[in-house]
Amino acid sequence: MAAAPLQPQGGLSNPNPTLCSPSHKPPDPQLDPVVSEIFDLIRDIKDPEHPHTLEELNVVSEDCITVRRHTFCQNRVAASNTQQTDSSSQTSVETKSTLPSGITNKTEEEEEEELWIKLVFTPTVPHCSLATLIGLCLRVKLERCLEARFKLDIVVSEGAHAIEGDVNKQINDKERVAAAMENPGLREMVEECIKEAEY
Amino acid sequence: EFECISSLEGHENEVKSASFSPSGSYLATCSRDKSVWIWEVVEEGEEYECASVLHHHTQDVKKVVWHPHQELLASASYDDTIKMYREDDDDWICCGSLEGHQSTVWSIDFDASGDRLVSCSADKTSKSGETANLVGGGGAGDENVWRCVCTLSGYHQRDVYDVSWSKCSGLLATACGDNVLRIFKEAHSSDVNCVSWHPSDPSLLATCSDDSCVRIWRLTTS
């Protein structure tokens, strides 16, 4: 990414982070299962600086995730073959297509659900230069592993960073995110942080 | 069959947008490297010479668009501003900076006349502005000032990535990160106070306005 430097300058920005023990309590039945699913994907992401997870460092928690369900109707033109169906010829397209005779064109209204997720994370110190990297790790992990249609906004918790406006802007600009992941050095750091622990 | 006839180098990272000027004499490009480059088109489009490298934006430049009739260029940036450029004595200068968006300006477009400009932003709004020449009658490039006349807010739920102003119908289309395409029509010359669909004809709509007009609209879909 262009703005904030992503390598700590000479030493850790927070040599003694406060740790919290990972929550081993049984899942709260009131909690939205989607929130649990999202948290399970991000809790073990490693902090770029310390040998601890984001959960252990209280950078993320279940409370930091809010999900809004967004339903909308998508008009789809589905081809239904009145003869023997060859599954490979069945297409669902959103534009008109010319079909051979014997096939009827039917407009279906499908209700689609999309999750609009907001993730608020708290870097360990306000001047943490790795906030953008953490934001990037969160986004890449979810975009790779969450099986759902979603929109994702990741923000630094208010007051938790000196330049939170700058950080938030970067980590939510999809072109900046794509550019960051094309940077081999950054990509390597992200992959290292999000890779699953080997048991 | 397309053949690559030229490769222009200079930008330091991704080139986001490229656009030919209305006369075809210039090509403008912009990049995440914060710069706007203007290339002079020579040898019938076979050769390009760098005419200017402009560093007026302080962040990534997302889009460049030319005025439909004049050699006036507009650029949109991550720095939340829109800048205008024109040629002055063999050199390109920045002749305006439009500020008002609260976040990245993703795109811009001129209307058919070039007297109006529309922009769209990560702040979830689209703004339109118009220009009035203050000095001389030499066209939009003279000491002109652009002022924002309209902000469309409350429609888009996420970043508005692109906007296009139809040169034939005057309709405005926006592309948004909430998966929706929106078409806007300027219906009146003042506040539109009421809108109502016909109860049984799905193509009829009525509006009334402070401009003292009542208008009936028919939607045609092919």
TrEMBL record, chain A:
Low complexity compositional bias: what residue ranges?
Answer: 80-92
Which InterPro entries does its entry note? FSCA_dom_sf, MIP18
Q: Which domain of life is it from?
A: Eukaryota
Keyword annotations for this protein, in alphabetical order, are: Chromosome partition
Where do Polar residues bias regions lie?
A: 10-21, 93-105
Report residue spans for region: Disordered: 1-32, 78-108
Q: Which Gene3D superfamilies match?
A: 6.10.250.1280, Fe-S cluster assembly (FSCA)
* GO annotation terms (biological process): chromosome segregation; protein maturation
Question: Which family is it part of?
Answer: Belongs to the MIP18 family.
Protein name listed in UniProt: Cytosolic iron-sulfur assembly component 2A
Q: Which organism is it from?
A: Geodia barretti
UniProtKB/TrEMBL annotation, chain B:
GO terms for biological process? iron-sulfur cluster assembly
Q: Where are the WD repeats?
A: 8-41, 54-85, 98-125, 185-222
Q: Indicate whether Repeat appears among the record's keywords.
A: yes
> May I have one GO cellular component term?
cytosolic [4Fe-4S] assembly targeting complex
UniProt keywords (A-Z) are: Repeat, WD repeat
> Which InterPro entries does the entry link to?
WD40/YVTN_repeat-like_dom_sf, WD40_repeat_CS, WD40_repeat_dom_sf, WD40_rpt
Q: What is this protein called?
A: Probable cytosolic iron-sulfur protein assembly protein CIAO1 homolog
Give the originating organism: Geodia barretti (Barrett's horny sponge)
